[in-house]
Amino acid sequence: MSASCEVYAPSDLKTALHLKSRYRDDLHVVAGGTLSVRLMSANAIETKNLMLLERLPLSFIRVSGRNVQIGAMTRLIDLIDNRLPKALVLAARSVRGLSIKSMATVGGNVFSPSPGCDVATALMALDAHLTLQSMNRKRSVPLEKFYRGPLKYSIRSNELVAMITVRNPPQYSTFTKLTPLPNSGPTIASVAIALDVNKREIVRRASVAVGGITTHPYRAKYVERFMLNKKLSNITLDQVEQGLVPKGLTIIKDANASSEYRERMVPVLFMRALNSLVKEVSRR
Ligand SMILES: Cc1cc2nc3c(=O)[nH]c(=O)nc-3n(C[C@H](O)[C@H](O)[C@H](O)COP(=O)(O)OP(=O)(O)OC[C@H]3O[C@@H](n4cnc5c(N)ncnc54)[C@H](O)[C@@H]3O)c2cc1C
């Protein structure tokens, strides 16, 4: 961080967007701070202007019918709410430790690179859209299209993420991750599945997101297409395995797991998630 730094903490969105429009890339935005403060401490962010979002009225969860709107400043701990799709609740619950869950925001999580993007992985399987707002314009971008490469996002320098919307989510969803710690811990790999089935358990809608292995989550489109019109309990690993991790993907490694291990765990997690959905559907 620069030696002298102007800090802004607006309490209304209009002022925040005005500042963003004025300073553009010269204004660093801090939401919960769990990632950005670490980057600033490591001098990885050089900025003369900081904007803290904590006072903005962007912490809310609105459920109306089957639609969900989540303010960008909603803390991950608040997503542990059983009005929300199960995949989202499980992803939030899996985030390491109470302090990170209580500080980190859902808006910040969509910017957080792997392995710290569990909530974004669940949101991607739920086909979430981001509302990106600037002073003069509001636009909606599917989360899947938000990622444009390592640490590259479809957001303009005068925009903020204001809200995340999940419209008419599939009836069934789940999230599963592998972590070296029991209950909640750092992610080695994760899989979220969301689907609708008819009375005969034939898949009518499916989306599968994989997280924790590349810089950001991605959708396993081949697997989604394969699942359509199949009986859920008839889907086997050998039918989908090759579509879960596309060839040529650069897979991350860290102190918790090698790239090879991460890649090998994705099919295991997919089957765990699928089996839990098969059980849930058969119980209805
Ligand atoms: C010890 C530790 C353990 C963790 N464990 C997990 C885990 O198990 N699972 C997991 O998923 N994650 C994990 N994380 C990552 C954590 O979830 C992310 O760091 C967090 O979600 C980021 O949110 P934040 O609100 O703190 O964002 P910040 O750090 O404040 O911001 C992150 C980035 O997003 C940008 N940004 C934030 N909000 C907006 C907005 N509304 N509009 C525009 N830009 C914005 C900021 O400018 C910054 O570039 C862990 C982190 C730590 C430090």
Q: What share of the residues does DSSP label as strand, in percent?
A: 15-25%
The CATH first-level class of the largest domain comes to Alpha Beta
The rounded distance between the terminal residues' Cα atoms is: 54 Å
CATH architecture of the largest domain, by name, is: 2-Layer Sandwich
**Major beta-sheet overview:** 5 strands, antiparallel
Instruction: Name the helicity range.
Output: 25-40%
Alpha plus pi helix count? 10
CATH superfamily of the largest domain: CO dehydrogenase flavoprotein, C-terminal domain
Shape: globular
Rounded radius of gyration (Å) = 19 Å
- Which small molecules are bound? flavin-adenine dinucleotide
The SSE order reads EHEHEEEHHHHEEHEEEEEEEHHH
Description of the molecule:
By secondary structure, the protein is of the alpha+beta class. Helices cover 32% and strands 24% of the residues. The chain is built from 10 helices and 14 strands. The protein has a 5-stranded antiparallel sheet with strand order 4-5-10-6-7. A 4-stranded antiparallel sheet has the order 11-12-13-14. Bound molecules: flavin-adenine dinucleotide (FAD). Flavin-adenine dinucleotide binds next to strand 2, helix 4, helix 5, helix 6 and strand 10.
Describe the structure in brief.
The chain is α+β, with helices and mostly antiparallel strands and 284 residues long.
